[in-house]
Amino acid sequence: MQSNINTSQPVYVAPANPAGRALASALTAEGYNVCGLADNLKQADGIINSHAQSKPDAIVIICNGPYTHNVAKGLMARGFAPHQLYTSLREDVDTTVQTQSSGASAHSDIRPYKTPISEKFKSFRFRILSFTIKVLRSIVPQRGYVYYAEQFFDTNMLLAYRQHRRQYPDEPWLIGRNIKQDLTMLDADNHLLRLFSLYGLWKMVRAKKMVVDHEFTGNTFTLLRKFIPVVQLWHGLPYKALSGNIHYPDICDDAFISSSSWFNEHIFPTIFRAKRYLDFGYPRNDVFSQSPQARDWINAEPLSTLTHIQNTTGSIIVYAPTYRDWGDNDYPLDLDKINAWCENNKRAFILKFHPFISRQFGDAMALPDSENVQTLPSHPHIYLYPSGKNIYPWLADAETLITDYSSIAYDFLLADKPIIYFQYDKQDYLKLRGNTLVSDNDFIAGEVALTIDELLRLLTDSAAANTELVSALRDKFLLGNKPACPLILEEVRS
């Protein structure tokens, strides 16, 4: 080990992701006193977020990767001194663990962390830009509203923006940074801008408010929210632990919007900072109180496709699992059994995966790249829904939802239809994700399946339709069916 680290010295490993956990395991096996994980964002047992939570004389070893400098900067902002930070120069942590298990020294390349010149330049540029925006906002009149996203415009964002654009065409602007999404559905919208165009930056500087539905962690959003009031739509009522922004003491958004006053009282204030918590609902959930013709089908497969599948294959069942960020996303689906059950019962089984998993699944099934729903080869009753598209107009017509730990289950309570929870890896999930934000009694409103055979039995058995549990949770969380978009628009413009 080419460093001055004493193996008895308290060590934390950052960040709390699969690579960090693998590094922590390898160091522990080598005899290092690993006390837990450190992370700028995640909060759970065994994870610290600041120097105040660490043991005396502790150091932090950061995994090498594209995020190393952001992690280091975040740790220093939370009280860690530069001399307490080290980096593991190995990028192939998984290979390292295998090497260690064979008896070789797993980590001979740990060095004191040094901020590179490029990061110092970025910091200087950030300070100049911050000063410039502050001055400009103090002298130019504020006008218009910005709906902002990074990498992907999610459904809540698009629907709220469209409502605003319909009623006040000149006011809202959809501005994105590093957008990787197919935006052909917005080709005719001349209010769609890229952030780092001069015009896009000018619109941001003048904006009265900024609407988001994620917690972006990069420098750009961090800078903009310093000067522009933020309305946070978020994107679901959580079961699993969330990072939020509570660990940023200088952040306090103008408003935080969800679909539940109960969550606004008991959960969200513990992880998000905001002046007000409003239970206006999520725009995507408006579909549950609308006819198919009245729904906004933005970024969704068209009604004609849904109707064709219903008429030719049968009523739809939607399977929408959450993404497993520890890397094990091999869902134990017996496609032959599922297809046979669907054929016998005249049903269509719709798969809606996370984009990463959808690509892997499509490759494994030899499906061509497509932005349209596809039938699986040799399984005519099973369909892969495009991962980047909005499933909610279809979900409103689903006979049953199958999920696991996803917040989509809370949304589907508004449909008053059966939910089945396919939780085949519950213990692994809890071990790696940490404690959940709510108890199972406040999440599960139906039956739990551990195997495909149990899942198919529950789909057949009317006991899966536990309407009493659905009603009880809907009432507890005060989930209403009032249209969210008009209420959100009024709040944004207030």
TrEMBL record:
InterPro entries: Glycerophosphate_synth, TagF_C, TagF_N, Teichoic_Acid_Biosynth. It is a peripheral membrane protein. Its main location: membrane. It is found in: Cell membrane. One of its GO terms (molecular function) is CDP-glycerol glycerophosphotransferase activity. Coiled coil: none annotated. GO terms for biological process: teichoic acid biosynthetic process. GO terms for cellular component: plasma membrane. Keywords: Cell membrane, Membrane, Teichoic acid biosynthesis, Transferase. SUPFAM superfamilies: UDP-Glycosyltransferase/glycogen phosphorylase. Belongs to the CDP-glycerol glycerophosphotransferase family. This is CDP-glycerol glycerophosphotransferase family protein. It comes from Alteromonas stellipolaris. The lineage of its organism: Bacteria, Pseudomonadati, Pseudomonadota, Gammaproteobacteria, Alteromonadales.
